[in-house]
Amino acid sequence: MTSVCADMAAGIARKLQQDSEWHMELLDEAKEPVFRIRIVAETLE
């Protein structure tokens, strides 16, 4: 999952608006998240 996300990260990051978030989750058989990757665009003051 990390390598798939790494391939997608540049395109995703370029499209994020200020103060927004993108995430991808890996779910187990019960559809519960076991791993999450988040990309957050924040305005820092």
Would you kindly provide a written description of the structure presented here, covering whatever features stand out?
The protein contains one helix and two strands. The chain has one domain (2-41). The chain has 45 residues and is α+β, with helices and mostly antiparallel strands.
What distinguishing features does this structure have?
2 strands; alpha+beta; two-stranded antiparallel sheet
Short description:
With 45 residues, this protein is α+β, with helices and mostly antiparallel strands.
What's the β-strand tally? 2
Helix content: 25-40%
Shape: globular
Strand-and-helix sequence, N→C?
HEE
- pLDDT averaged residue by residue: 86
Largest sheet: 2 strands, antiparallel
Strands of the largest sheet, in order across it? 1-2
Q: First CA to last CA: what distance? A: 33 Å
- Proportion of residues in β-strands: 35-45%
Question: Which residue ranges are poorly predicted, with pLDDT under 50 across at least 5 consecutive positions?
Answer: none
How many individual helices? 1
Number of domains: 1
* Secondary-structure class: alpha+beta
